[in-house]
Amino acid sequence: MEEPCPWRIVDDCGGAFTMGVIGGGVFQAIKGFHNAPVGIQHRLRSSINTVRIHAPQIGGSFAVWGFLFSTVDYGLVQLRGREDPWNSITSGAVTGAVLAARSGPLAMVGSAMMGGILLALVEGVSILLTRFTSRQFRNVPPLLEDPSQLSPKEDTPDTDFPSCQQYH
């Protein structure tokens, strides 16, 4: 684990808020520009006002999600004693369910499934990228310094490199 509990949760909450404000700001700027009356001044003013009003709300929603997700994730790490993708997937499902609790049990189940599936996709892509990039940095087998250490059928007169068959 990288950081102690409270700082990790606060860091995740702040990161989620920042992502929500930036992403929501871009989206709301486009939306405000598009929905404004004709004229560049009207469109720019509408765009700025829409961002000013809605971006902090979107950032706050993301911050709540990040806080809840991080808290559940840390709780699962402490409960299970290990940090693996199942913690994130379960945290996504629990977070989705809790945030939909006011809408009833059916909405909770749907949101839990969406949260779990979304985090499973994120974790799956992360694992695939890690495996793909780790292949680029594999350790190359060390070359033998003395060619006499090679067996006679692997020794080739024109190269000092051992046969690839030796390492398979």
From TrEMBL:
One of its GO terms (biological process) is protein import into mitochondrial matrix. Its main location: mitochondrion. Keywords: Membrane, Mitochondrion, Mitochondrion inner membrane, Transmembrane, Transmembrane helix. Residues 143-168 are annotated as: Disordered. It is a multi-pass membrane protein. Pfam families: Tim17. GO terms for cellular component: TIM23 mitochondrial import inner membrane translocase complex. GO terms for molecular function: protein transmembrane transporter activity. The chain crosses the membrane at residues 106-129. It is found in: Mitochondrion inner membrane. Essential component of the TIM23 complex, a complex that mediates the translocation of transit peptide-containing proteins across the mitochondrial inner membrane. Belongs to the Tim17/Tim22/Tim23 family. This is Mitochondrial import inner membrane translocase subunit Tim17-B. The lineage of its organism: Eukaryota, Metazoa, Chordata, Craniata, Vertebrata.
